[in-house]
Amino acid sequence: MCGIVGYIGHREAYPIILKGLKRLEYRGYDSAGIALYDGNDIKLSKTKGKVDDLEARVAKEINTEGTLGIGHTRWATHGVPNDVNSHPHYSNSGELVIIHNGIIENYEPLKQELETRGYVFKSDTDTEVLVNLIEDIKKNEDIMLGKAVQIALNQVVGAYAIAVFDRSKPNEIVVARLGSPLAIGIGEDEFFIASDASPFIEYTNNAIYLEDEEMAVVRRGKDVKIRKIPDDSLVDSYVQELQLNLEQIEKGGYPHFMLKEIYEQPHAIGDTFRGRLLPEEAIIKMSGVEDNMKKFLNANRIIIIACGTSWHAGLVAEYIFEDLARIQVEVDYASEFRYRNPVITENDVVIAISQSGETADTLAAIKLAKSRGAFVFGVCNVVGSSIARETDAGAYTHAGPEIGVASTKAFTTQITILTLIALRMARAKGTISSSDFRHHMIELEMIPEKVEIALKSDALVSQIADIYKNAKNFLYLGRGYNFPVALEGALKLKEISYIHAEGYPAAEMKHGPIALIDENMPTVVIATKKGHYDKIVSNIQEIKSRSGVIIAIVTKGDVTVKELADHVIEVPETLECLAPLLTTIPLQLLSYHIAVLLGKNVDQPRNLAKSVTVE
Ligand code: F6R
User: What is the mean pLDDT of the chain?
Assistant: First the structure.
């Protein structure tokens, strides 16, 4: 939520910051702003709307000279999206300017206190309170900006990644982090500041990722020194070499990131299991699992915590773990788990799933589980993310950057990792025979080429999308392994096309949703051959006899459902437990095409943000 960018060095800051904001727009896009400093004057421009709107406004409003600057793209938490609430925010004197990603929870009492001292607030934001708190401390104690920031941050409760500079200090930007990500790119006599490395990847491969409660005064031409906010102690900073490349964060000829990411799935799934799935040797190699095998084998149960699409991947994993490794599994929304006083013991293994690795609720749930003695294993995509660092061990999905707000390749790669863990555990427990183990490995290895085949349904799916794009409601049904896929299909449609959709276990339909069925409501049924096929066929008949319209996802060569359904989309045959990796593909494409046909902003759907760093 919210993207922040900053630059200090020898180049013009504006083009770097503007491009950086465009790359970070997936994090929030209801307003944007920029502040540049040319050594004499601060030039600030901000607006409700997208970074393109900001660019147009800047062209009219300010001259863009300056080698120091900060920029922000916002996902509103305090105060509606409008020009005034957009960042950057000035302090009352106009001497300090700040950008902020996060929430200051105790901003109300701090604001009241500052008001009694004569401070006036133009916006409804918590951020304007923070910059004035810093100003107040700096003025009263007559100290440098860095020190004032440190004292102020010790008074705030909440989460932040901030960048702030002072009109009287043309050579420094102060940055700090707690709960929201912040990277410092290190170039030759220049520094880049950003929520992730994408804004500066073409300038440097070296970056420091601040840890929670760390801050730095980034000075032109000087080394970066990192300090702990609570006690001001110096920290040994670790300069990481970035693995990201420019191609990964550009659209590469696709009209949208979402489509590019849907099409990347064969590769992404392959990258997820490369070096880990070794069918010829009959081995699954995952160091995070191997090193902690005792924990997995002694576990009474596995608790999976996640949000949104990652939670759906967790639901698929529940079936896989129970089926293959014969262990009890619970899957919980991180947001419910963290506030529910859950029963957790030292014999529980908690698996936290998160694409971004920054989701606030998942992070809080991990901390709770750890505090109660559980071993927590992370499944993340973003390397070095907060969740990857907070968990006791983990495995990366290696899906590459996912930029479209609607998660696609994250889902299938998460399922891939979880399948590997379940298989490894099953082998160690002896709940799977060696021939079955090999068979599963061989089938998993074939998934990328089968996803490739599933993607060939694109043109057909696009025609179906055209027929049903004006429907007001959709129902998605699946059973067993395909039930979470139905939930995921419905979520994809809701979030990018704004059409109401519900996912349901097919058999539950007759306990309520069947009342909704009529000729105007399409039902998407996942009816693959293995797993409750006959039952699903009965469910389809029930819908047809009530004039319902059926779009069915079937196994290649299906005959029965083909006769009943209005439209069928085929996917290749695979093992029942691997079916979600294929059945999800046409559902992603369906939501994508409907959203495009309706003229929606596919990559940046309204009200959503890619990483939800607030609860
Ligand atoms: C849906 C979507 C969200 C995320 C959820 C969790 O397409 O993207 O539902 O899945 O916000 O995010 P992560 O996986 O980053 O924790």
Answer: 94
CA of 348 to the centre of ligand 1 (A): 24
505: Cβ contacts below 8 Å, ≥ 6 apart: 477, 478, 479, 483, 486
Q: Which two tokens stand for residue 312?
A: 């759906």
Q: Across residues 450-465, what is the average pLDDT? A: 98
What are the phi and psi torsion angles at 400 (to 5°)?
A: 80, 165
For ligand 1, residues with CB inside 6 Å are 307-310, 354-356, 359, 362, 406-407, 491, 495, 611-612
Which residues participate in catalysis according to the annotation?
2, 610
The preferred substitution site among 331, 353, 356, 415 for testing ligand 1, maximizing ligand atoms within 8 Å of CB, is 356
Give residue 132 CA to ligand 1 midpoint distance, Å.
34
Euclidean distance between CA atoms 433 and 431, whole angstroms: 7
What is the Å distance from ligand 1's center to 355 Cα? 7
pLDDT at 613 over 80: no
Q: What is the pTM of this model?
A: 0.86
pLDDT at 256: 95
Q: Which domains are present in the chain?
A: 3-248 (3.60.20.10), 252-445 (3.40.50.10490), 454-600 (3.40.50.10490)
- Write down the pLDDT at residue 29: 82
Helix (H, G, I), strand (E, B) or coil at 68: strand
